[in-house]
Amino acid sequence: MKFEDWEPHYLRILDYFGFERADDERAAEFARTLTSKDDIEKLKLALDGKNVTVCGNAPCLKDEISRIEGVVFAADAAADYLYKSKIRPDIISTDLDGCEDSFLEMSRSGTIMVVHAHGDNISLLKNWVPLFKGPVVITTQSRPVKGVYNFGGFTDGDRAVFTAVELGASKVRLAGFDLDDSSVNPMKHGKLMIARELLGILGYDL
Ligand SMILES: Nc1ncnc2c1ncn2[C@@H]1O[C@H](COP(=O)(O)OP(=O)(O)OP(=O)(O)O)[C@@H](O)[C@H]1O
Ligand SMILES: Nc1nc2c(c(=O)[nH]1)N=C(CO)CN2
Ligand SMILES: [Mg+2]
């Protein structure tokens, strides 16, 4: 998605949650100083023309493991669940609030970390990004800058879907998405409603 097409959604998100654009932009610049890695070509190669399953972290993921096929693209804490179920994701979409030591092991084994920098995760970026030994791609929800990408999307899960679509996946199926999950807190509920809206743009009716 071109940034000009994404920007109206982004402006609405900023307004809805009271996030500051300048904080997101500072986070993106800061993340870029934490690593020299920019594995965008590896990420393209992993997705272009591929059958991809994006795994969200809803409780239903455990019942939907059998839906997983092709390239495994995990959204944040779903990666840890999959790894413990003996499935190492090929790619993880994370803003690092679901990051565990298992992510370091997965990274060492070649899992591509698509790390999202935003105004509220600067200390997480500082703690985790230098520790990733494998491929890393940095993303922003604001205007992209050199070595920092914006494929569209907001939460770790819907961003993964936008990333897969943008980088040419031939088919993107979902597992572990329950956007009506009543066990989540109000902030998370709001985020999942945005995720639903954004996935709707891509034709997913969740
Ligand atoms: N019921 C659900 N509960 C949690 N996550 C869900 C659910 N349904 C779908 N997802 C997707 O799984 C992703 C990863 O979930 P996780 O629990 O790790 O949340 P998170 O890291 O707090 O998400 P975010 O950082 O995007 O707010 C979410 O970003 C969301 O897109
Ligand atoms: N500033 C800011 N941006 C975000 C946040 C967040 O908590 N703060 N959470 C996200 C994933 O849910 C994505 N983007
Ligand atoms: Mg997260």
Automatic annotation (TrEMBL):
Cofactor(s) recorded for this entry are: Mg(2+)
Quote the Pfam families the UniProt record gives: MptE-like (PF01973)
> 6-hydroxymethylpterin diphosphokinase MptE-like domain spans which residues?
35-181
Query: Which InterPro entries would you find in this protein's record?
Result: HMPDK_MptE, MptE-like, TPK_catalytic_sf
Could you tell me which pathway this protein works in?
Answer: Cofactor biosynthesis; 5,6,7,8-tetrahydromethanopterin biosynthesis
Q: Name one GO molecular function term.
A: ATP binding
What keywords would UniProt list here?
ATP-binding, Kinase, Magnesium, Nucleotide-binding, Transferase
Q: Name one GO biological process term.
A: tetrahydromethanopterin biosynthetic process
Provide the reaction this enzyme catalyses.
6-hydroxymethyl-7,8-dihydropterin + ATP = (7,8-dihydropterin-6-yl)methyl diphosphate + AMP + H(+)
The protein's Enzyme Commission number: 2.7.6.3
**Record keywords: Oxidoreductase included?**
no
What does the sequence similarity comment in the record state about its family?
Belongs to the archaeal 6-HMPDK family.
Q: What does this protein do?
A: Catalyzes the transfer of diphosphate from ATP to 6-hydroxymethyl-7,8-dihydropterin (6-HMD), leading to 6-hydroxymethyl-7,8-dihydropterin diphosphate (6-HMDP).
What is the protein's name according to its record?
A: 6-hydroxymethyl-7,8-dihydropterin pyrophosphokinase
